[in-house]
Amino acid sequence: MPDNKNEKTEPFPTVREGSLNDKFNSIGQQIVKIAVDFTTLNVTTLTGHYDHIINTKEQGGKNKVRTKFHDFTKELGKPGAVDARIKLVAHTHVDFDHDTINFVSENVDPNGDFLFDLHSAALNSAKSSRSAFIRMLKEFVR
Amino acid sequence: MSDTPEDRDALIAAIIPAAKIEKLELGRVEEILQPLMDLGYISKADTRLIPMAIRLFRKDYLELNLIPEFKPKFWLSHGTDLESEELSLLHTLISLDGDFSIDLLPKSGTVNLLSRVIHYRLSIHHFYALPVDSPFSRISLNALNKLKHWVKNLPKADLDMANLLGDIPALVQHIEKNANGGLNKRIVVFKYQKAKVFTRFSVPVPNELMEEVVEDEEDDEKDNETAMLKAETEIDETLNKLQSTHGDIFKQDEQEELKDSRKNRRRRKQIVRISGMMNQILAEMHGISDAASEAGATIPESIHRLKGIQNTLNNEHKSLKKQISTVEDAIKKLEKNKKKLNKKERQLHRKIKKNAPQSEIQQLKLEITAIKNADRTIEQLEIKKSPFQVQSIHIEAELKNVNKKINALQNRFDNILKKRKEEIEKRQGELKELHDQLKILQGRVEKIKFSFRGKMKKVLDRRYYEEIIKKEVFEKRNRQFLEEVSQDPFVIYLTRLIQIFQWTNGFYYGKIDNEIGDRTFNALDDMSTYSRGLRLKFILTRLSENHEGTRGFWILNIKYLFARLSQIIAEQSDITTVNVLEEYENRFIKNKSSDTSIGNEVTDRAYSEIVEENQSDIRESGIIRRIYYGIKSIANTIFNALKELINILRSAIQELIYLVKNLVKIVYKEIREGMRKFKEGMQFLFGRREFETLTANGSAILTKYDFDFDTLMLVPEEVSDVELRQHTALLYRFSNNLDFALVLTGNILKWVFRLINLGTPIGWARLAIRVAIRYKGMIIKWLVRLGRKLAQTFVSIKYDLGKLSNPRPA
Question: B717 vs A138: CB contact, 8 Å cut-off?
Fold first, then answer.
């Protein structure tokens, strides 16, 4: 059960731990906790190369750890030499009134067009997911 | 609790535990495989062929825009899985309840979904011998019109014929009215011998069934239905009278159940109930006797105990009285002595005067002193006597009380014995009355002859009966005539149609092969048990040719059977699977003491058997397989018989009738499909929202969605076009067709949180059945909405689910 019983958890009464009610209760408390901003939607696509050389010899580890690009956000801030090229492929900002700002980077070769298609796919996927989510909420509060 | 993606995954897994839904997933592959085989997408039962067949099926339904709001998962090119919506469409396509109607015939030479559906229907009717995936052709058109050889007033348009062949209830009704020459000039004749060898899943025909349909030697052509109806009315009157005097024999719900039963069965049940009542009275009599014995055991004991007290008290009282008496004697003696004082004083005076010896004078003086002290002694004795007297009075009161108690107990005991005698006499009177009534009823029931011939004479054309049936069949036993009738193509077709009807209504699970075997027999019995207004004895009779009755022809009264079936079809209400599930929830889930499992050993066994049967049968090529996936007719049948079926599920019956298996199949299937969608929704809402596509160089394309769908995508530099396309597909897979799953999930969560707030515990079984009910309700509405949408855009297909859109109120 969550520790923060007094924070936004009043709608969910205490139930027997381990029961199905208890598990759904946890779900309910998560819903209450999550901060949601449905007024804007931001989709960002980055590409690049990221090598993070971390000296772990002192800890008895290997000399270097090459960090993969898709993991780089996890490694940010850790000590060690970094060889990184990170490029923004595209960024899309959609306002609640559907006003949309698209930033598309020039020269993201060699897969520029394909990358932008992928960005569009992510944007479409996010849009339809959000719309389905809102329908779910509508059903929930109906 | 923390809310890392791992925690959330674990929470979802705890709400929808894999172990719980594992068994429900069994048999799903066959549910996909069989319809794909039926529609000719797969030629043999080989799961390796499923991915290709699924791709073709998807291509076909997309071409016809059959589910316009649905985006199939083509990228799962090696998958053997269909989404719930697609499975629902597939089962609707092979339904024979008129759920899917075609508005445009395929062009000659084409192979598409419509040609497959039409060829499938024709194959079921045995009108089309080519493979189902053959191009639509003149042969197909000829096959569509084959029925016109035997039945009049059929639709002129080939298209309407195609739809009629996919609507068995409508077809049965049409043939009943429009068979060439009339069904009242037809009988169905076939040969049948009870199977001697039984396979793993075959159920032998019970001897009672064989006895019920055996030809009765006394069963002449006399139409005794009028006499039977008269006897029935008399019995009903007797039962009504009995019921008014012994209303408690029939509890309310039992009365409801009795109304739904067949008349004769009802009467038998009523007799059973009266026997039950007799047993109840006997039990009560035993109870009365026991109560009296119990009282008999305690009251005398109490009396005995009290009498012991009485004796003790009496003894004490006696002893006290004795002591009092002793004291009183002493006092009396003293009082007597007191009267001697003057005399003694005079003696003393005389002795002194006469100078009597001193010793005498002293003696007299002592006596006189003692007499003079007597008052004090008396007083002392009185004081001694007083407690004895008080104690005596107390004991006397106690004795009086004990005596009173003893008398009361004795009276009570006498009363109990008297009452027991009266009660037993009263019950004996009731018992005698019931026994007499029972004897009368049994006598009347036995008098009723279920005359096959009488019914046949009544429903058939009089002349046809007198000249053909009576003479050739019953009198002459004209073997050649019987042989000819049994070989008549229309008769063979009618036999097949009976099997198809049994199959689509959930009674039959054998091959559709025109052969009347044990399963068809059992299915006829089940039909007459669970369909109102059918009597087995009127449907079938056996003309034995040898003494043992093992060889010979069977005659089926097709006119009677189809007339009753038409009536049943016409009276059917708009029952949907949702109604079946709700009733299942009310009767089976809500009443269960434990809410941890959706079924019990019997339902699990029924489901395992049906899966196992399907898995083994599907391997046999060239037969129409046994599992029927249409729902409308089965839902009706099951709903009407649900109470009895649930009772079977609650009992530990070994031989499960197919109707029970169908009920379990429907319930488990809808729970499974509903749970799939619910899980999808829960995973979307609370699960991990990170999607990775591994790349050739050991890196990965990663997309991360926040809870409110802000998105970050990381793409390494060295990725191929294929990898990018794969990742695109992955993203669409995540977000496509989400509406259905999320609306269902929202609906279920709302229900769950309402129960939580009410403090009602939610067990797995309750959640599962609720998910199934909501899912099924949604899928019905969804298909209807698609049907309307398609109709508006003038697409040539429609889902004829008008009835299903109007589920009965719960």
Answer: no
How far B32 CA lies from chain A's nearest CA (Å)? 28
Domain that holds residue B339: 265-447
Which domain, by its residues, includes A10?
1-35
Dihedrals phi, psi of B580, to nearest 5 degrees: -60, -45
- Using CA coordinates, name the residue in chain B closest to A108: B717
> Which residues on chain A are in Cβ contact (under 8 Å) with B727?
118, 121
Q: Which residues of chain A have pLDDT under 70?
A: 1-18, 31-36, 52-68, 70, 74-82, 107-112, 142
Chain B residue closest in CA terms to A46:
B714
B306 and B379 share a domain? yes
Return the minimum-mean-pLDDT range out of B577-581, B709-713, B726-730, B801-805.
B801-805
Lowest mean per-residue pLDDT among B52-61, B183-192, B731-740: B731-740
A45 and A24 inside one domain: no
Residues A119 and A95 in one domain: yes
Cβ B538 vs Cβ B545: under 8 Å: no
Subunit contact B717:A49, Cβ cutoff 8 A: yes
Closest Cα partner for B743 from B657, B704, B809, B685?
Answer: B685
Same structural domain, A114 and A68: yes
CB B582 within 8 A of CB B637: no
Q: Which of B709, B727, B749, B778 to mutate to test the interface with A (most CBs of A within 10 A)?
A: B709
For chain B, the domain total comes to 2
The total of structural domains in chain A comes to 2
CB atoms within 10 A of CB B477: 14
Q: Which residues of A touch B756 (CB under 8 A)?
A: 12-13, 15, 21, 24-25, 28
**Reported ipTM:** 0.80
pLDDT at B542: 79
Q: Do residues B301 and B428 share a domain?
A: yes
Which of A10-14, B164-168, B291-295, B721-725 reaches the highest mean pLDDT? B164-168
- Find where tokens 């695109």 sit: B728
Å from B669 to nearest chain A CA? 22
B547 burial type by CB count under 10 A (0-12 exposed, 13-18 middle, 19+ buried): exposed
